[in-house]
Amino acid sequence: MSDSTSTSAPEVALIERVQSAPGSGREILDPATGALVGHAPVHSVGDLDDAIERARRAQPGWDALGHAERSALMLKAADAIDEHAEALARLLSREQGKPLNGPNARFELGACSAWLKTSATTILEAEVIIDDGDAHAVLTYKPVGVVGAIGPWNWPLMITIWQIGPALRMGNTVVVKPSEYTPLSVLALLAVLNEVLPADVLIGISGDREVGARLSSHPDIDKIMFTGSTATGRRIIENSAGNLARLTLELGGNDAGIVLPGTDPEAIAGDLFWGAFINTGQTCAALKRLYVHDSIYEEVIAALAAVAGQMPMGPGLDEDNMLGPLQNKQQFDIVSRLVEDAKTHGGRVITGGSPATDLGPLFYPITIVADVTDGVALVDEEQFGPALPVIKYFDVEDAIASANGLDVGLGASVWGSDRDEARRIASRIQSGTVWINSHGGVHPMIPFGGVKSSGYGLEFGVEGLKAVAVPQIING
């Protein structure tokens, strides 16, 4: 155990900036240790209405600054993230549970800075639609107005930046509602950004579901960006019907991976592992069901298990750990239920298979379950945790049909030594993104979004800027 498990002074200072007054607010506990992290403010619907009004008043002035000045301020805000990165990472680790190292808390803060800088510097050019001597038309993009950003608890800081970066770049103001599970780290991130940004351009509201429902139905909200469950996404669609707010919804997924015959199991094992178990499996576009050809089925399972055996799990502030707990009891119970159900349906547990009670009440070990089939709950339902079903197939046509058989389509992957063949198969999978020989990697300039019940709308790059703007044609 390293000596880095105590709370740092900069982290304490960040918490004190954003938490509620002494004796008030909601307790936020470290999911790894149960220790108190801080007290999150509990804002009311009235507080939200006031925040939206302030954002509405601030928006014209922010838009009037122009792209160049907004970009310059956003770059300074990204520098502020870098200056506070360690304190933010430690707060994130304690509140969300993810370790500091590996593709976890420090990685997430680095992504926040990188994505904000990319949003600040990406150019969205006006497009000449026609100019033939008789007609002249140009397509331009204007800010939507006030954007409501509703974030999740799994990657709370990074996804918040994904939402607010493009929105600010295009001249919108933003009201952010973080998850009730991870409000302190998000509010701290916003406080850091607001050291640079003008007043009321970016406002955080920490509240319950009533506040979230009001945000998505408020008549002065012009755009909602939401990352979370499909069920909540459907409610947001219903709530937003009255004000016709534009929507970008990144909803639940149950990503399939297909390993083709002839693939080297040892060569892909590490990338398979992190594709499935990054953030202890708590990632929307993680690999959640793995279809492996019969000819290499046992070899792939063994290679995955070998990687799993090398990954230390424990409290996030221990510098040695790569995997943390489930963030909350509700998610822990879902994973436990699905694994137990798989056992009753003949699943062969390769690693894990029961709670890691020696580490703490919310720790569940990396669990690989072989010999399950479509129709078993662990295959058909999104587990959102460290449990991966591995399904044997004999004909690639059956694997493609299985990958497409569920009403989700956020991500998928194809693994094989023949990249052209893998791409041909990828083109037949119903998914917003299909990776080749990797899974879940995102890039700030590559559009990302889902199909079917995994939502709609694109984020990142030029398409992400268009998503938080309204088109205008200058005709004549």
From TrEMBL:
Residues 26-468 form the Aldehyde dehydrogenase domain. It comes from the Bacteria. The keyword Oxidoreductase applies. Keywords: Oxidoreductase. The active site is at 250. The keyword Oxidoreductase applies. One of its GO terms (molecular function) is oxidoreductase activity, acting on the aldehyde or oxo group of donors, NAD or NADP as acceptor. InterPro entries: Ald_DH/histidinol_DH, Ald_DH_C, Ald_DH_CS_CYS, Ald_DH_CS_GLU, Ald_DH_N, Aldehyde_DH_dom, LUC3-like. Belongs to the aldehyde dehydrogenase family. This is Acyl-CoA reductase. Pfam families: Aldedh.
